[in-house]
Specification:
With about 325 residues, this protein is α+β, with helices and mostly antiparallel strands. The chain has a single domain, classed as ATP adenylyltransferase (HIT family, subunit A, 2-Layer Sandwich). β8 and β9 form a beta hairpin. The structure holds zinc ion. Zinc ion (ZN) binds next to loops.
Amino acid sequence: MEALDKRAEALIAEQLTEWDTAREHYAQLTQVQVKSIRFPGFRFDVQFNRARIRSTSAPVDAHAIRERPCFLCRENRPSQQRAIPFGDYDILVNPFPIFPDHLTIAAREHIPQFIAGRVSELLDFTRRLDGFAVFYNGPEGGASAPDHLHFQAVCRGVLPVEYEAERWPEKSLLREKDGIRIFGMEHFLRKALVVDGRDEKEVANAAGQIMEAFASLQPELSEPRVNIVAWYTQRGYRLVLFPRQGHRPRQFYAEGEGRILFSPGAVDFAGVIVTVREADYRRMNRDLLTDLFLQLTLNDESWKELKERIRACSGRNRA
Ligand SMILES: [Zn+2]
């Protein structure tokens, strides 16, 4: 059978000819305004993308989720949306794209968004979908369908964190074992943990250990608040995990002019800010981004504790 990345590219091309909604939204993407906001050594690309409003402002509380038909379940999908079945998942074209290649990888079963035991599958997709980065929004970290397990995949090279994770000068090595290295990254408005290594199981195992260490700092949540972005290169896997303190900034809940529709997920944490209203797009600048991310990234005290736990942890666990 043809390689999965080739089949996915073909699916995107086909869906854009046969599915009006997808075609319109991908065509609109060429009109999207983008501006870069530069900081010393890193940058954010801010996108003004009206079509994403549904995703940004969606209520994700348990009641709202129960009341709506799940848009990732096969029986509720638009009739024009086709799938490539692979393993336990269906690969779909995302009809509300942020980038020119944007896939949703939805579990075939309606099971909750939960990463434990699934990191290997996420990594497997990064290797099979050559040219794509694959990401995961945790149920507490901006997933718009926290009740249905899914990943997303976008073309490589569009997320600034792909470069920053390789080159960040202050990356500190927290642990090196069995060919797996775990780094801490900070001072780029966010905190992040970077796992790199060649062995899929070992990388997944390390990610699982990070999640367990983090879970003990957020015991009140079903899963600690994270976004994960991963990709595969000739040098192996790269997995970047963003531990978070908050879901949405206070400005999201403000009224009137103070309101900013900013409800970030993995893409925003990876350096592409998606705004859905022109006023928000215009307002984004260094000071505002600094304020927003400081509210949401892990606070200094918990970050220090998390790094200590990762340094100390050497045992095996399920990934
Ligand atoms: Zn579902």
